[in-house]
Design a protein that fits this description.
- It is built from five helices and three strands.
- By secondary structure, the protein is mainly alpha-helical.
- A three-stranded mixed sheet has the order 1-3-2, covered by helices on one side.
- The longest helix is centred in the C-terminal third of the chain and has 20 residues.
- The radius of gyration is 14 Å and the shape is globular.
- The two termini are about 20 Å apart.
- The mean pLDDT is about 90.
Length: about 120
């Protein structure tokens, strides 16, 4: 399991949902999804598997309205973060990863360590 393979798999999951999810060379937001228009994009130089999984869960949760996009108090952002880490942990474990090598998981996925610690216990 490496970062690019994970990104490819996650991009495929988004496209299977019918979204045009395009790579771009530079994007200030790293990755974005517009649920209503079924489009999105991600920065190929900066987006991590966590960033893409986070956007995927905005699709799954049908998050069409975000009052405060990057506000930790926004329940849609919190839910997308939590779901993204859960999915990535499952993918990691299914690929043979173990909790003894959790720093490897964080390095590969870009998942915030505070979410990993919270969900790994």
């Amino acid at each position: 399991m490496n970062q690019q393979n994970l990104i490819n798999e996650l991009v495929d999951l988004i496209r299977i949902k019918g979204f045009a999810f395009m790579p771009v060379d530079h994007l200030d937001a790293v990755a974005v999804i517009n649920i209503n228009k079924a489009v999105g994009m991600y920065d190929v130089n900066a987006a991590t598997p966590f960033d893409i999984a986070h956007e995927y869960f905005h699709i799954i949760h049908n998050d069409t309205y975000r009052k405060n996009d990057y506000d930790i108090r926004n329940p849609q952002e919190k839910d997308a973060n939590e779901s993204a880490v859960e999915l990535l942990l499952n993918m990691y474990k299914n690929a043979g990863g173990t909790m003894e090598h959790i720093q490897n998981f964080i390095d590969i996925t870009g998942a915030p360590d505070y979410w990993v610690v919270r969900l790994a216990n």
